[in-house]
Specification:
Two copies of one chain form a homodimer. Chain A has 13 helices and twelve strands. With 342 residues, chain A is α/β, with parallel strands linked by helices. Chain A has a six-stranded parallel sheet, with helices on both faces. A four-stranded parallel sheet of chain A has the order 7-6-8-9, with helices on both faces. In chain A, strands 10-12 form a two-stranded antiparallel sheet. In chain A, strand 6, helix 9 and strand 7 form a beta-alpha-beta unit. The relative contact order of chain A is 0.12. Strand 2 of chain A pairs antiparallel with strand 2 of chain B. Chain A binds a DNA duplex (30 and 30 nucleotides) through helix 2 and helix 4.
Chain lengths: 342, 342
DNA sequence: CATAAATGTTTACACGTATGTAGTAATTGA
DNA sequence: TCAATTACTACATACGTGTAAACATTTATG
């Protein structure tokens, strides 16, 4: 079995079955009359040779590539990892292949994508310029946006998936408030190149909206942002804890941040969750192993993946895309005081 | 800018430049004589139209697809996430696209891959059957194996990357031994469907080899395996701690396991690292946020990614693949007693 | 000056597939 | 019986590209 095989083509199948290539095509695409006899012979030949139509040639003929491109800022985190996993799973079942592209690559971005003839693009990026996205849309490439922020300026045939981030954060704020927290703080990402969240960002927006709904005045004390690394964040949290109006609840962009916050709070000698509450986002491994175990918000990666594929198949077959709405799930562990969210 | 554009082809470029299509091809592939005048006009037209050769058509002509397939057991963990990130980065720079496929998908596995005409496959999987891999090799598809275990039965044109797992674990064992641990335990993965490591697995092998080198008899007490989830692992660790010959050092397959072990050890009232040492693998986020911070072994994802691409380019251009050897890096934090590894 | 060599360009085909068009044979309808 | 329909099959072309080979032009050589 160590000889150099060669991938069989339609021609090989046709010869083995004793029919023309066209017949093979018709059998496999099931769109023309083919006699039962020949159909059987073709299928047997296909089986015997392990023939499978060449995706490349198929794509060239304009028949779709069964190829999805996933664009994200960085796949190196728990959330994206699990999303990719689910995406691959549901995509594979439907015959699709999933490819990856980092949003930070921008040389030749658009032309590269178009030259690949992928069937659709899923975008989950806060950094990808909206005009890039618009250009993809203008080239009639089906685009699915995973809404982590507002893509207000993107118009045309675009499908949007709302993952429930905003309402998830809102529930978190409400939970902390109802359990007695009155000095809530939103913890933003750490980054070398300063990048502050604004109302475009759905987490930030969720926090602000819910605070306003609760009638709480937003001040500079309501936010920790602009830290360049986790050490800086640690210090910032300590300062915030030891200030005149000490924070008693932290709502964090993700679990990694939340864990650092948690450690800082504990280091300051505060009791968690009795004196201070902390809630993260992602339900990552970190949230499960820190002590006390971190309360967090879990996203429905499987649901998102399914929704994305459903939308893609709609768009590919020409239907008008719709919006999909999913929900997050609160995972209450030990850094929040128990409280029925109802 | 909201009109439906259309992707330009070689023909469009040729017309705009006032030359034949062949000239365009020759200019872009730089393999024939073309007058300076026409070359200039072609390049200008290319620039103007944002033309890029259609990868699909190119692939169909057998000129490679600049397409790499990455096959792994599950990308939903820190290690794979970062590897993917690095892989995408170096691949993008060299014009490649990276696709994903889970090793647990096995229906039509081979034919699907072959029908995609990818240029190469990178495999990092403990579960993918070796005969599948062999089949890819037999179909003269360049394969790069990330050696997490022994693929002894795979023969032919295969490139192998040794990521330093085995020696990394060996160093860890030596470190714990030299810092005084005498009852070391290897902690295996948790899994529903029981799957025990053996000498094929490089971590397991590293542990056993080093233990034998140190002259320590391996017994059933040297291993914790067969746990179906983290709760079971927690209990198993507690039992092991409270047994007649209490363990004083745990070498774990990954950080997630190590964190659970750490929490169990602490819950049993043992001092870490004074009484018990724990070391993980991956340098994941979890290892950074648990308290005490977990000592661990970091892999060189960037180096692995570069090596993989280098090997792929070698194989694609017909050279005989070679073995690549990388090294891991010990990250000593607070769950091991400080000790100079020399 | 004639001819060979070097340089520059085009024509023609191939990769593996899908399908419009057209053709043949069998069946049906009146 | 003859036309009309149905059940099949085949030919020819196109997708966008790479490149051998034929052709054309210029330059070098004897």
């Amino acid at each position: 079995m160590t000889g150099k095989n060669t991938v069989p083509t339609r021609k090989d199948v046709a010869e083995l079955a004793g029919v023309s290539e066209t017949i093979v095509s018709y059998v496999l695409n099931a769109n023309r009359y083919v006699s039962a006899d020949k159909k059987k012979r073709v299928l047997e030949a296909v089986e015997k040779l392990h023939y499978r139509p060449n995706s490349i040639a198929r794509a060239l003929k304009g028949k779709g590539n069964s190829h999805i491109l996933f664009i994200a800022d960085n796949v190196a985190n728990d959330y994206f990892g699990r999303l990719l996993q689910e995406l691959d799973s549901v995509a594979y079942d439907r015959g699709y292949l999933v490819s990856l592209m980092s949003a930070k690559n921008n040389r030749d971005f658009i032309t590269r994508i178009l030259s690949r003839q992928v069937d659709a693009v899923i975008i989950s990026s806060a950094s990808l310029a909206e005009n890039y996205i618009q250009e993809l849309v203008d080239n009639s490439l089906p685009v699915v946006l995973l809404m982590t922020r507002d893509y207000a300026s993107v118009h045309g045939r675009v499908a949007r998936i709302y993952t429930g981030i905003e309402s998830g954060i809102m529930s978190a704020v409400r939970l902390l408030y109802e359990s007695g927290c009155r000095n809530l703080v939103h913890v933003d990402r750490v980054s070398r190149n300063l990048h502050f969240s604004n109302r475009q960002d759905l987490r930030f927006r969720g926090f602000c909206n819910q605070m306003e709904t609760l009638g709480i005045q937003l001040t500079e004390h309501s936010f920790i942002s602009g830290c360049r690394d986790y050490d800086e964040l640690f210090s910032a949290v300590c300062r915030r804890i030891q200030s005149d109006v000490p924070a008693d609840g932290f709502v964090c962009r993700n679990d990694r941040l939340a864990c650092t916050v948690l450690n800082a709070v504990l280091a300051c000698g505060k009791k968690v969750p009795d004196e201070v509450s902390v809630i993260g986002f992602d339900d990552s491994d970190s949230s499960k192993v820190v002590r006390p175990a971190l309360s967090t918000i879990a996203m429905d990666q499987k649901g998102i993946a399914s929704a994305a594929l459903e939308l893609i198949e709609m768009m590919v077959s020409g239907e008008t895309p719709v919006e999909k709405h999913l929900v997050t799930r609160m995972v209450l562990r030990e850094t929040t005081r128990q409280q029925d969210p109802e």
